[in-house]
Amino acid sequence: MSLISYGYLCSDVRDTNSRFIKLDENRLRAVLRNLLELVAIDEKWYLETYSDVRAAFRQGKFSSAREHYVNSGYFEDRLPRPIKVDVDWYLETYPDVAEAIRNKKCASAQEHFEANGFKEGRQPFEGWSLITAVAKKF
Prior knowledge:
Layout: H1 6-9, E1 10-14, E2 21-23, H2 25-36, H3 43-49, H4 51-58, H5 65-73, H6 87-93, H7 95-102, H8 109-117, H9 133-136
Antiparallel strand pairs: 1-2
Helix pairs in contact: 3-4, 6-7
């Protein structure tokens, strides 16, 4: 895994009166791909869950579910593996989801996370990260 310089990531245009910077998307994706190498991918589940990915894999467009996830899947908001939601924590943390379930706009916390929550940056349980606990130690 490599990490490129912060200066390289930032554009030459900076607002010195702000904490905001412009990033070139390709440069940001390169950095994220390095981090994505630390994400646990359930190869079998990933290929079974995403039929389009399975078809592309069979056509030889990539060599593994990991390759697809690192280069495309993450950027398409795909889950890398099944992720179990702590229902009580999720509904307490996201009362709007509890309200949506009461109003029958979604069936469960798990369904919400898989359909929308992950894309919205919500966590399925306290302290969760895509990067596994084992990888965080390095």
